[in-house]
Amino acid sequence: MTKKRETWKSHWGMIAAMIGTAIGLGNIWRFPYLCGKYGGASFLIPYIILLFGIAIFAMMCEWVLGRHTKREPLGAFDKIKFPFGRDIGAWGVIGPFFLYSYYIVITSWVIFFIFASFEGLYFGKDTEVYFSSFLGSKWIFLVHFIAVCLTSGILAMGVQKGIERACKVMIPTLFVLLIIVAIRSVTLPGAGEGIEFYMRPRWGGLLNVETWIAALGQVFFTLSLGMGAMLIYGSYMKDEWGIPMNALSVTLGNTSASILAGFAIFPAAFALGFGRVIGSAESIGLTFFVLPKVFEVMPGGHLFGGIFFILLAFGAISSAISIQEPAIAWLKDEVGWSRKQSAIFTGIILWIMGLPFIFNGFVRGGIGEKLALLSKMDIIIAQLAIPVFGIIAIIAVGYFMKNRGFDEMNKNARVKLSHTWLKPWIKATVPVFIALLFILSLLKILQDNGIIPIVIPASQGVKFVSIGITPMTILAIIFICLIFWGGFIYSTVKVLTIEKDKKGRVSRGLHHSR
Question: Does the global pTM surpass 0.70?
């Protein structure tokens, strides 16, 4: 007899877990440093276009694959008879290991800063130097071990008792603390320049091919696409939950955290003298030497800093468990191991894989040199590996599942997507656009490493010259707030209300039948 598959217990728990797959480091660490590197709003505009035009459909395709097959990546592709399905699906299990190997190292930085904040270890110090010295200290080994144990421990408890229960508490609380930090950041003297950098559109930056490549990698990274996580989480979705509105809610909720993180980082960076770091190699560690300075100038900064990094650790761990989960699901479904055995085994392997990134922190030089290996792996995974798996999932739904895939996408959905435009968009536009940016990304990487001659001219970017907060900046702020924060609240309330109405109709039906 086939063992019944685990599912999410509650609708809100499912939404929190889906959002939690990336809220944390994808939003608060990666988004700000990329946004800073590619010119603030010059990065934000391509990001939003790719988010709604490409990524949300890729996410729905992964959910469709998971929910329709009720399997992990290997089993899912095999079940729909995709050519070399098990081999391709293996990337959804193996690939996340490479992402997790450096992601969990960054999570360990967050754990260390919990202790450093409560003790005030960085107060009164040059936080950039302090962070750099931490990367080459003995503490990194301890916190790395703790981070792996935490993720493996939560996963060992299961979908409902572990993943869902943790995310239902962690994600809303992280939002609240992030709002508090953002408010303090934008009220610092001199914060206006950071707000302007972040929100004032500089249209010339949209011509930068690198910006679009980086934006595509970030939307896939931040929504945990192309790594098997959304596919496996989709396999835990109940059939009565509609996919389109839930996808919109998760997309808006996830990006709301990224937007908040920008308001927490950029105003503070310019106000506290870190504007020179924006866009440099050192900006990869931006979160870890800008936010500590914010806490230093906040009343009760020790407490707020400690609590914030606790919640950021929750967000980081919620993402890490989604990356580790596909391998655990494979060991359970295909090998027959228990969840606890699978969590311990994968945890050991992943701890070992993180060690090279830790040892790189002991090299001489600045932050750029200490994080060089991590930075290179992040580019390879986010801009090459993840989009490839994303394209394959889209092709699987569009061409191999055919009408079954599109019907699954609209199953029990209050808001259904018309096949008239949905089919050509998913079968042609989305994969072609991803493939184009993937090819450009590959050429850029080969070019930067001297393997091929110059194909894509190096972008000079658009120099930021502060001219004060303009009406265009104010309009951008209003537009962003309404679309993301307002849209997230509206769509989430809507999907939860729809679910409540369905339960009410079922309950009344049972009552009348008696």
Answer: yes
